[in-house]
Amino acid sequence: MTSPAHSGGYLSDPRVRLIEWLPWLAALICYFVAPTYLPLGSYILIMILFALSLDLILGYAGIITLGHAAYFGFGAYVAAIVALRVTADPLAGLAAAAFAAGLLGWLTGLVILRTRGLTLLMLTLAITSICFEIANKAGAWTGGADGLGGFTVKPILGLFRFDLFNKTAYLYSLVFLFLGWWLVRRIIYSPFGASLTGIRENVVRMQAVGSPVYHRLVLVYTISAALAGLAGALLTHTTQFVGLKVLSFEFSGDLLVMLILGGVGRIYGAFVGPLVYLVAQDSLAKQFPEYWYFGIGLMLILVVMFARGGILGILDTLVSKLPHARR
Fold first, then answer.
1. Average pLDDT for residues 204-211, to the nearest whole number?
2. Higher per-residue confidence, 323 vs 86
Protein backbone atom coordinates (compact mmCIF):
# COMPACT_ATOMS: atom_id res chain seq x y z
CA MET A 1 0.00 0.00 0.00
CA THR A 2 2.98 2.31 -0.28
CA SER A 3 2.37 5.14 -2.69
CA PRO A 4 4.84 6.32 -5.29
CA ALA A 5 5.64 9.28 -3.10
CA HIS A 6 6.98 6.85 -0.51
CA SER A 7 8.42 4.18 -2.72
CA GLY A 8 11.26 6.24 -4.14
CA GLY A 9 10.13 6.41 -7.77
CA TYR A 10 7.06 7.17 -9.81
CA LEU A 11 7.56 4.12 -12.03
CA SER A 12 8.72 1.73 -9.32
CA ASP A 13 5.80 -0.58 -10.05
CA PRO A 14 2.93 1.01 -12.02
CA ARG A 15 1.13 -2.32 -12.35
CA VAL A 16 -1.82 -2.94 -10.07
CA ARG A 17 -0.75 -5.41 -7.41
CA LEU A 18 -2.98 -8.16 -6.09
CA ILE A 19 -3.40 -6.46 -2.70
CA GLU A 20 -4.81 -3.38 -4.43
CA TRP A 21 -7.85 -5.35 -5.53
CA LEU A 22 -8.77 -6.16 -1.92
CA PRO A 23 -10.74 -2.92 -1.26
CA TRP A 24 -12.89 -3.56 -4.33
CA LEU A 25 -13.46 -7.18 -3.35
CA ALA A 26 -14.41 -6.05 0.18
CA ALA A 27 -16.83 -3.48 -1.24
CA LEU A 28 -18.57 -6.12 -3.36
CA ILE A 29 -18.78 -8.51 -0.41
CA CYS A 30 -20.37 -5.75 1.72
CA TYR A 31 -22.99 -5.27 -0.98
CA PHE A 32 -24.19 -8.84 -0.51
CA VAL A 33 -23.61 -9.48 3.20
CA ALA A 34 -24.58 -6.10 4.71
CA PRO A 35 -27.58 -4.79 2.72
CA THR A 36 -28.88 -2.74 5.65
CA TYR A 37 -25.68 -0.66 5.65
CA LEU A 38 -25.78 0.25 1.96
CA PRO A 39 -26.91 3.87 2.59
CA LEU A 40 -23.89 4.39 4.86
CA GLY A 41 -21.74 2.42 2.44
CA SER A 42 -22.62 4.59 -0.54
CA TYR A 43 -21.82 7.71 1.50
CA ILE A 44 -18.46 6.23 2.50
CA LEU A 45 -17.63 5.49 -1.15
CA ILE A 46 -18.47 9.07 -2.12
CA MET A 47 -16.33 10.46 0.67
CA ILE A 48 -13.44 8.23 -0.40
CA LEU A 49 -13.63 9.77 -3.86
CA PHE A 50 -13.72 13.22 -2.28
CA ALA A 51 -10.70 12.36 -0.12
CA LEU A 52 -8.84 11.08 -3.19
CA SER A 53 -9.38 14.43 -4.88
CA LEU A 54 -7.93 16.23 -1.86
CA ASP A 55 -5.00 13.84 -1.50
CA LEU A 56 -4.04 14.48 -5.11
CA ILE A 57 -3.31 18.15 -4.37
CA LEU A 58 -2.40 18.00 -0.69
CA GLY A 59 -0.48 14.75 -0.46
CA TYR A 60 1.24 14.79 -3.85
CA ALA A 61 1.42 18.44 -4.94
CA GLY A 62 1.68 19.97 -1.46
CA ILE A 63 -1.20 22.42 -1.97
CA ILE A 64 -2.59 23.11 1.49
CA THR A 65 -6.30 23.88 1.49
CA LEU A 66 -9.16 24.14 3.95
CA GLY A 67 -11.74 24.98 1.31
CA HIS A 68 -12.00 21.91 -0.87
CA ALA A 69 -15.70 21.66 -0.03
CA ALA A 70 -16.28 24.58 -2.44
CA TYR A 71 -15.82 22.26 -5.43
CA PHE A 72 -17.71 19.36 -3.87
CA GLY A 73 -20.63 21.63 -3.03
CA PHE A 74 -20.54 23.40 -6.38
CA GLY A 75 -20.74 20.07 -8.17
CA ALA A 76 -23.55 18.94 -5.87
CA TYR A 77 -25.62 22.04 -6.59
CA VAL A 78 -24.96 21.91 -10.34
CA ALA A 79 -26.14 18.29 -10.43
CA ALA A 80 -29.31 19.24 -8.53
CA ILE A 81 -30.06 22.24 -10.75
CA VAL A 82 -29.45 20.21 -13.91
CA ALA A 83 -31.79 17.46 -12.65
CA LEU A 84 -34.46 19.99 -11.72
CA ARG A 85 -34.31 22.35 -14.69
CA VAL A 86 -32.56 20.61 -17.59
CA THR A 87 -32.52 16.82 -17.55
CA ALA A 88 -32.89 14.12 -14.91
CA ASP A 89 -30.36 11.89 -16.67
CA PRO A 90 -27.76 11.14 -13.94
CA LEU A 91 -24.82 10.75 -16.33
CA ALA A 92 -25.52 14.14 -17.89
CA GLY A 93 -25.68 15.60 -14.39
CA LEU A 94 -22.35 14.02 -13.46
CA ALA A 95 -20.68 15.38 -16.57
CA ALA A 96 -22.07 18.88 -15.99
CA ALA A 97 -21.04 18.84 -12.31
CA ALA A 98 -17.49 17.62 -13.01
CA PHE A 99 -17.05 20.19 -15.80
CA ALA A 100 -18.46 23.06 -13.71
CA ALA A 101 -16.37 22.20 -10.64
CA GLY A 102 -13.27 21.77 -12.80
CA LEU A 103 -13.90 25.17 -14.40
CA LEU A 104 -14.30 26.75 -10.97
CA GLY A 105 -11.10 25.02 -9.85
CA TRP A 106 -9.24 26.34 -12.89
CA LEU A 107 -10.47 29.91 -12.45
CA THR A 108 -9.76 30.02 -8.72
CA GLY A 109 -6.50 28.11 -9.11
CA LEU A 110 -5.18 30.74 -11.52
CA VAL A 111 -5.40 33.22 -8.65
CA ILE A 112 -4.73 31.36 -5.43
CA LEU A 113 -1.83 29.22 -6.71
CA ARG A 114 0.25 32.34 -7.21
CA THR A 115 0.42 32.53 -3.42
CA ARG A 116 1.93 30.29 -0.76
CA GLY A 117 1.52 29.39 2.89
CA LEU A 118 -0.99 31.23 5.05
CA THR A 119 -2.17 33.44 2.18
CA LEU A 120 -3.06 30.39 0.12
CA LEU A 121 -4.85 28.83 3.08
CA MET A 122 -6.90 31.97 3.70
CA LEU A 123 -7.85 32.28 0.03
CA THR A 124 -9.18 28.72 -0.05
CA LEU A 125 -11.32 29.52 2.98
CA ALA A 126 -12.52 32.71 1.32
CA ILE A 127 -13.60 30.84 -1.83
CA THR A 128 -15.64 28.39 0.24
CA SER A 129 -17.22 31.21 2.23
CA ILE A 130 -18.18 33.05 -0.96
CA CYS A 131 -19.73 29.91 -2.47
CA PHE A 132 -21.60 29.24 0.77
CA GLU A 133 -23.02 32.76 0.88
CA ILE A 134 -24.04 32.69 -2.79
CA ALA A 135 -25.84 29.38 -2.28
CA ASN A 136 -27.52 30.78 0.83
CA LYS A 137 -28.76 33.94 -0.89
CA ALA A 138 -29.68 32.52 -4.31
CA GLY A 139 -32.69 30.72 -2.91
CA ALA A 140 -34.56 30.67 -6.22
CA TRP A 141 -31.87 28.38 -7.63
CA THR A 142 -30.41 26.65 -4.60
CA GLY A 143 -33.27 26.54 -2.09
CA GLY A 144 -31.24 28.68 0.32
CA ALA A 145 -31.10 27.47 3.91
CA ASP A 146 -33.81 24.87 3.21
CA GLY A 147 -31.72 23.09 0.61
CA LEU A 148 -32.70 21.93 -2.84
CA GLY A 149 -34.84 18.86 -3.37
CA GLY A 150 -38.03 17.95 -5.14
CA PHE A 151 -36.31 16.39 -8.14
CA THR A 152 -36.19 12.80 -9.33
CA VAL A 153 -33.20 11.21 -11.01
CA LYS A 154 -33.93 8.92 -13.94
CA PRO A 155 -32.70 5.31 -14.01
CA ILE A 156 -29.04 4.99 -14.97
CA LEU A 157 -28.82 4.22 -18.72
CA GLY A 158 -32.59 3.82 -18.54
CA LEU A 159 -32.13 0.46 -16.79
CA PHE A 160 -31.07 0.86 -13.16
CA ARG A 161 -33.57 2.72 -11.01
CA PHE A 162 -32.54 4.30 -7.69
CA ASP A 163 -34.28 2.21 -5.07
CA LEU A 164 -35.28 2.69 -1.45
CA PHE A 165 -32.53 0.37 -0.15
CA ASN A 166 -29.69 2.18 -1.96
CA LYS A 167 -28.58 -0.89 -3.89
CA THR A 168 -28.28 1.05 -7.13
CA ALA A 169 -26.78 4.06 -5.34
CA TYR A 170 -24.07 1.87 -3.80
CA LEU A 171 -23.00 0.31 -7.10
CA TYR A 172 -23.30 3.67 -8.86
CA SER A 173 -20.94 5.24 -6.33
CA LEU A 174 -18.60 2.24 -6.46
CA VAL A 175 -18.25 2.40 -10.25
CA PHE A 176 -17.33 6.09 -10.26
CA LEU A 177 -15.02 5.67 -7.29
CA PHE A 178 -13.20 2.99 -9.27
CA LEU A 179 -12.89 5.34 -12.26
CA GLY A 180 -11.65 8.14 -10.02
CA TRP A 181 -9.12 5.83 -8.35
CA TRP A 182 -7.90 4.63 -11.74
CA LEU A 183 -7.38 8.23 -12.90
CA VAL A 184 -5.58 9.32 -9.72
CA ARG A 185 -3.38 6.23 -9.79
CA ARG A 186 -2.44 6.82 -13.43
CA ILE A 187 -1.53 10.41 -12.58
CA ILE A 188 0.69 9.63 -9.60
CA TYR A 189 2.49 6.80 -11.45
CA SER A 190 3.34 9.10 -14.36
CA PRO A 191 6.09 11.64 -15.08
CA PHE A 192 3.51 14.33 -14.32
CA GLY A 193 2.93 12.75 -10.90
CA ALA A 194 6.67 12.61 -10.29
CA SER A 195 6.92 16.32 -11.06
CA LEU A 196 4.15 17.02 -8.55
CA THR A 197 6.10 15.18 -5.87
CA GLY A 198 9.17 17.18 -6.81
CA ILE A 199 7.21 20.42 -6.51
CA ARG A 200 5.98 19.36 -3.10
CA GLU A 201 9.49 18.56 -1.92
CA ASN A 202 11.38 21.52 -3.41
CA VAL A 203 9.67 24.15 -5.56
CA VAL A 204 12.86 26.16 -6.12
CA ARG A 205 14.75 23.16 -7.45
CA MET A 206 11.91 22.24 -9.82
CA GLN A 207 11.87 25.78 -11.17
CA ALA A 208 15.64 25.66 -11.57
CA VAL A 209 15.43 22.56 -13.80
CA GLY A 210 12.85 24.28 -16.01
CA SER A 211 9.66 22.61 -14.77
CA PRO A 212 6.52 24.72 -15.39
CA VAL A 213 5.55 24.63 -11.72
CA TYR A 214 2.66 27.08 -11.77
CA HIS A 215 0.95 25.54 -14.82
CA ARG A 216 1.26 22.02 -13.42
CA LEU A 217 -0.19 23.10 -10.11
CA VAL A 218 -3.13 24.75 -11.88
CA LEU A 219 -3.69 21.60 -13.95
CA VAL A 220 -3.69 19.22 -10.99
CA TYR A 221 -5.86 21.63 -9.01
CA THR A 222 -8.38 21.63 -11.86
CA ILE A 223 -8.42 17.83 -12.01
CA SER A 224 -8.84 17.65 -8.26
CA ALA A 225 -11.72 20.12 -8.32
CA ALA A 226 -13.45 18.14 -11.09
CA LEU A 227 -13.16 14.93 -9.06
CA ALA A 228 -14.55 16.71 -6.00
CA GLY A 229 -17.46 18.01 -8.10
CA LEU A 230 -18.08 14.49 -9.36
CA ALA A 231 -18.25 13.25 -5.76
CA GLY A 232 -20.69 16.05 -4.92
CA ALA A 233 -22.92 15.09 -7.84
CA LEU A 234 -22.91 11.47 -6.70
CA LEU A 235 -24.13 12.57 -3.27
CA THR A 236 -26.89 14.65 -4.87
CA HIS A 237 -28.06 11.79 -7.05
CA THR A 238 -27.97 9.15 -4.33
CA THR A 239 -29.83 11.30 -1.77
CA GLN A 240 -31.82 13.44 -4.25
CA PHE A 241 -31.19 16.45 -2.05
CA VAL A 242 -28.44 19.01 -1.48
CA GLY A 243 -28.06 21.47 1.39
CA LEU A 244 -25.66 24.16 2.54
CA LYS A 245 -23.66 21.69 4.62
CA VAL A 246 -21.76 20.57 1.52
CA LEU A 247 -20.24 24.08 1.28
CA SER A 248 -19.41 24.51 4.94
CA PHE A 249 -15.98 24.93 6.49
CA GLU A 250 -16.80 22.07 8.87
CA PHE A 251 -17.25 19.75 5.90
CA SER A 252 -13.79 20.64 4.58
CA GLY A 253 -12.39 20.14 8.08
CA ASP A 254 -13.98 16.71 8.40
CA LEU A 255 -12.49 15.69 5.07
CA LEU A 256 -9.02 16.81 6.14
CA VAL A 257 -9.37 14.85 9.39
CA MET A 258 -10.33 11.73 7.41
CA LEU A 259 -7.29 12.08 5.17
CA ILE A 260 -4.89 12.66 8.06
CA LEU A 261 -6.40 9.68 9.84
CA GLY A 262 -5.76 7.38 6.88
CA GLY A 263 -2.45 8.84 5.75
CA VAL A 264 -1.69 11.88 3.58
CA GLY A 265 0.18 11.36 0.32
CA ARG A 266 -0.73 7.70 0.19
CA ILE A 267 -3.47 6.86 -2.25
CA TYR A 268 -5.02 4.25 0.03
CA GLY A 269 -5.01 6.58 3.00
CA ALA A 270 -7.99 8.17 1.25
CA PHE A 271 -9.70 4.77 1.45
CA VAL A 272 -8.88 3.94 5.06
CA GLY A 273 -9.48 7.36 6.63
CA PRO A 274 -13.12 7.96 5.53
CA LEU A 275 -14.00 4.33 6.26
CA VAL A 276 -12.66 4.41 9.83
CA TYR A 277 -13.93 7.92 10.53
CA LEU A 278 -17.49 7.39 9.27
CA VAL A 279 -17.91 3.92 10.78
CA ALA A 280 -16.60 5.25 14.11
CA GLN A 281 -18.88 8.26 13.82
CA ASP A 282 -21.90 6.04 13.12
CA SER A 283 -21.11 3.71 16.03
CA LEU A 284 -20.27 6.46 18.53
CA ALA A 285 -23.29 8.54 17.55
CA LYS A 286 -25.55 5.58 18.34
CA GLN A 287 -23.87 4.79 21.66
CA PHE A 288 -23.02 8.33 22.83
CA PRO A 289 -25.09 10.81 20.78
CA GLU A 290 -23.93 13.81 22.83
CA TYR A 291 -20.24 12.96 23.06
CA TRP A 292 -19.32 11.16 19.85
CA TYR A 293 -17.06 14.02 18.72
CA PHE A 294 -14.93 13.41 21.82
CA GLY A 295 -14.23 9.88 20.66
CA ILE A 296 -13.33 11.06 17.15
CA GLY A 297 -11.04 13.75 18.57
CA LEU A 298 -9.30 11.28 20.87
CA MET A 299 -8.74 8.87 18.02
CA LEU A 300 -7.26 11.63 15.87
CA ILE A 301 -4.95 12.81 18.68
CA LEU A 302 -3.62 9.29 19.18
CA VAL A 303 -2.97 8.86 15.46
CA VAL A 304 -1.24 12.24 15.10
CA MET A 305 0.93 11.70 18.19
CA PHE A 306 1.92 8.08 17.68
CA ALA A 307 1.47 7.47 13.94
CA ARG A 308 2.71 10.38 11.86
CA GLY A 309 1.78 8.50 8.69
CA GLY A 310 -1.78 7.83 9.80
CA ILE A 311 -3.31 4.38 10.05
CA LEU A 312 -1.31 3.22 7.04
CA GLY A 313 1.82 4.35 8.86
CA ILE A 314 0.93 2.01 11.71
CA LEU A 315 0.48 -0.85 9.25
CA ASP A 316 3.85 -0.07 7.64
CA THR A 317 5.53 -0.19 11.04
CA LEU A 318 3.93 -3.53 11.89
CA VAL A 319 4.84 -5.03 8.51
CA SER A 320 8.45 -3.82 8.81
CA LYS A 321 8.77 -5.75 12.09
CA LEU A 322 7.79 -9.04 10.52
CA PRO A 323 10.67 -11.50 10.06
CA HIS A 324 10.44 -11.67 6.26
CA ALA A 325 10.44 -7.84 6.01
CA ARG A 326 13.88 -7.62 7.67
CA ARG A 327 15.57 -10.00 5.25
1. 87
2. 86
